[in-house]
Amino acid sequence: RAVTTDMKTLTQEIEKFAQGKKIEIDTLKIQEEYRKDFLGNVSHELKTPLFTVQGYILTLLDGAMNDKKIREKYLNRANKGVERLIYIVKDLDLITKLEVGELKLEREDFNVLELIQNVFDLLEMKAAQKDIMLTFDMEYEPIYVNADREKIQQVISNLLVNSIKYGHANGTTEVSVENLIKNKVIIRVTDNGYGIPEQHIPRLFERFYRVDQSGSRNEGGSGLGLSIVKHIIEAHDEKIYVESEEGVGSEFSFTLEKAANNPA
Ligand code: ADP
């Protein structure tokens, strides 16, 4: 590199270098804050199910084991707690990978209607337990999109699970797929559940953010679902929107790119 003798240029270079370092340090500080914050939230999220499981085990050891009925009941509950822990750890693993950009998309062309039907099938039982109806609002003409199939399945699944968790008994969740301008489709998941108070909407997609609304407290969740959704959609360079009214319902929608070779 040529040595600069011009004093002004030299000063400018030094300032630029120092500025660069400052930005580096600021970034490190933010990352450090982020890590502390993240760890704090993780241990908080894991504590409740861990103590619950421990509670059942201790009660069993304390003598409840002798009664076959109680034994079965407590073991089942402990198992539910462990299942919940597994879900949380899987979500944490996924979000960490998404946040450091480690997860690469595996794009392919697939029929998005078929994917939605798959998710419906997987969640049928869960919805039925709450008397919630899952409905499709579309013609059954295949719509091919180009995206990471597995990850979009997770997006649709997270949105549907939420609509069931935060929906009233006898409610309905409707999924629709609509053509947008320029090779895009928009997928909407609309429910007539609790809805979300306006002041919470801007923070909804932050990880660990949960709306503490009456009725939703019992709904086991880690507050990671929507932040995973947002990461996946943004990794596709697509957009996600939410509209919601407390007491009326919510609509989450996102765009996807249509496959180049769509029939019709
Ligand atoms: P989790 O469901 O694990 O709490 P999410 O990130 O999926 O986490 O959602 C964050 C919060 O947004 C939830 O705690 C809930 O209060 C609110 N929410 C999400 N989806 C809906 C919905 N369809 N209707 C009402 N509230 C919702």
TrEMBL record:
Its EC number is 2.7.13.3. It comes from the Bacteria. One of its GO terms (cellular component) is plasma membrane. GO terms for molecular function: phosphoprotein phosphatase activity; phosphorelay sensor kinase activity. Residues 41-260 form the Histidine kinase domain. Keywords: Kinase, Membrane, Phosphoprotein, Transferase, Transmembrane, Transmembrane helix, Two-component regulatory system. It catalyses: ATP + protein L-histidine = ADP + protein N-phospho-L-histidine. GO terms for biological process: cellular response to phosphate starvation. This is histidine kinase. It comes from Flagellimonas pacifica. The chain holds residues 87 to 350 of 350 of the full protein.
